[in-house]
Amino acid sequence: MTTSPELELGAGVSTSAPAPALAARTRGLRKVYRSTVAVDQVDLDVPAGAVLGMLGPNGSGKTTTIRMLLGLVRPTEGEVELLGRRMPDESAHALPDVGALVEGPGFHPFLSGRENLRRLAAAEPRLSTSDIPKAVENALERVGLAAAAHRRYRGYSLGMKQRLGLAGALLVPRRMVVLDEPTNGLDPAGTREIRRIIGELHADGVTVLVSSHLLAEVEATCTHVAVLHDGTVVAQGELDDLLESGSPGLVVSTPDGDLALETLREHRIPGKLVPDGVRADLTAVAAPQVVEALVRGGVAVHEVRRERTGLEDLFARLTQDEAEPDGLSDVDEVSA
């Protein structure tokens, strides 16, 4: 099987497509804590302007990778570049352009949300003293905390704490924003707000890296995905390409299911009945040929759509144990 030009699957498996401009990259990244290997040979590419969702089971190395990317932890081995700067040695040059919320926000419990944010703003190298009040109010308004800004942080709910942490990441314009589980503790309305903010950042050309366990949110907000398992990257690429990386199929909605299936078999096109129609296998035939065969066979075609693997199914397939019968190894390729 082969990969599409935009996909890279497993360690050392890549294509010859021109390399995109990258906001961040790692090569051979490895982190060992005593006898525990937290991250092992991670090669991660974060395209500039993308919204990349980093997925993986608990303990897969997501947060450790993010911490090394931001220069918070020094790798045992490997290289890290952030906005063209080598990390952690050049972190002072890169980090002013990066907003981050990692492993939950940490603020003073007896100060209000506004006071906490003002203290954080005072440490921003690109904010003058006179600009701090306006920057703080704009950030609070953006994350929906303006009405609760006077309340002490210790009285905030988990979702409000997440919002304040996000406000801290957005105090000044950024080239890149890194969010570790940004919807943790949020209700559906709060989750929609985070989705809106990520969409606004993307529209402004900001690169966003999101670590999340909510697959539906990743599918709704991200343009790219990287899947980690046992400390290594098992798949990365554009989300649409990954979702179409299973066995290619065309789902045809028709009231003439039996006739459609018979027509497919006459043209030696593998197919099967599905609710409201048939599914044709596209391994050896193009979609237009399937539609033409069905129409010529007198089948009433109401709707045609390319079948896509759901992110939940893809995630399960990529992260199940190698010993399982249908598991993918780290170097398996997925056809597009």
Name the poorly predicted regions: 1-16, 322-336
Output mean pLDDT.
Answer: 86
Q: Can you count the beta strands?
A: 14
Helicity range: 25-40%
Instruction: Note the run of SSEs as H and E.
Output: EEEHEEHEHHHEHEHEEHEHEEHEH
CATH topology of the largest domain: the name is Rossmann fold
State the end-to-end distance: 9 Å
CATH class of the largest domain: Alpha Beta
How would you sum up the major sheet?
6 strands, mixed
Tally of contiguous helical segments: 11
Rg over alpha carbons: 23 Å
Q: Label the structural class.
A: alpha/beta
Q: How many domains make up the 3D coordinates?
A: 2
At the fourth level of CATH, the homologous superfamily of the largest domain is P-loop containing nucleotide triphosphate hydrolases
**Main sheet strand line-up:** 6-7-8-3-9-10
CATH architecture heading of the largest domain: 3-Layer(aba) Sandwich
Overall outline: elongated
Kindly estimate the percentage of residues that lie in beta strands according to DSSP: 15-25%
Protein name: ABC transporter ATP-binding protein
Keywords: ATP-binding, Nucleotide-binding, Transport
Family: Belongs to the ABC transporter superfamily.
GO molecular function: ATP binding
